[in-house]
Specification:
- This protein is of the alpha+beta class.
- It has helices at 7-21, 66-86, 144-152, 177-202, 229-236, and strands at residues 27-28, 31-32, 37-48, 52-63, 94-108, 122-138, 168-173, 207-218, 226-227, 251-263.
- The strands form three sheets. The chain has a five-stranded antiparallel β-sheet with strand order 5-6-4-7-9, with helices on one face. It has a three-stranded antiparallel β-sheet with strand order 3-10-8.
- Helix 3 (144-152) packs across helix 5 (229-236).
- The radius of gyration is 33 Å and the shape is elongated.
- The two termini are 59 Å apart.
- 19% of the residues are buried.
């Protein structure tokens, strides 16, 4: 009588069954095929008054000798830091964006003569420019007017070259932009879910779970700085000589999401 081999047959059958069970479901575009879904968009809007200001100050001095230019620049920097300290601005709120020392040349046209009918421009050394750009964060926007007045009256334009930037820029911003962005995105998802539930109810079904979420456009929280030198001087002349800062206005913040919900 021949022996019967059972173990091999069981092993082969187990492999066949396991292979059939673990085969992954067909997925199309991130959503499982055959599953009923509804795709909706959600939008959240919020109007906020900017609660902090950024003053960008361009300090620079240009003089024939590097040591002279550096000394004049350092005097301006020292004066600016004294202004911010007197107005209660924390030292960590005064940030250096860039600082450089560079020679400045100017190309001058050479007169045309019979010997040189097509002369090339001559490069002429004009001096050294020492420049620092600083960003001052003002968390109390009520201080902006006074700060602008003191900065514009400090004489920082003396021996300065503004070819590479304005002396003063002002920009209002909303603080903690990432936190407000996340709040808006959460609101937009809530709006999308409510819309999906209404649609599902009208179709005689219900929402089960989220299949996909895609983030759309989120509005810019921090607009570009606007040159304020001329406007600042006009503002100081108003309100019987009291310092007046340009108004903050409102910023319309917006977030959009696209959500795919699975239906029952």
């Amino acid at each position: 009588m021949k022996p019967v081999i059972v173990g091999a047959g069981i092993a082969l059958m187990s492999a066949f069954v396991i292979g059939a069970v673990v085969r992954p479901p067909l997925v199309m575009g991130g959503v499982q095929a055959g599953v009923r879904t509804v795709s909706v968009s959600g939008q959240a809007n919020r109007k906020l008054v900017p609660d902090e200001a950024h003053l960008r100050v361009n300090l620079n001095s240009m003089l024939p000798k590097m040591a002279e230019a550096k000394a004049a620049h350092d005097e301006k920097l020292k004066a600016l830091l004294e202004i911010t300290k007197a107005e209660g601005i924390e030292e960590r709120k005064v940030r250096t964006e860039s600082s450089m020392v560079q020679p400045i040349y100017e190309y001058v046209n050479t007169p045309v003569t019979a010997a040189m009918p097509n002369p090339q421009p001559t490069r002429v050394f004009r001096g050294y420019r020492v420049q620092t750009q600083l960003d001052i964060t003002v968390v109390d926007t009520a201080k902006v007017g006074v700060l602008m007045e003191k900065i514009t009256e400090a004489g920082f334009e003396k021996d300065a070259n503004t070819e590479w930037g304005n002396l003063l820029d002002l920009n209002y911003q909303v603080s903690e932009p990432e936190k407000k962005r996340d709040e808006l995105l959460a609101e937009a998802i809530t709006v999308a879910r409510a819309k999906a539930e209404r649609m599902a109810d009208a179709a005689g079904t219900s929402v089960v779970r989220v299949q996909q979420i895609s983030e759309g456009n989120v509005s810019d929280y921090n607009p570009r700085p606007v040159p304020m030198m001329a406007m600042a001087k006009m503002s100081m002349a108003e309100a019987d000589g009291a310092p007046v800062a340009p108004p903050t206005g409102e910023q319309n913040l917006q977030a959009n999401v696209s959500v795919v919900f699975e239906l029952n």
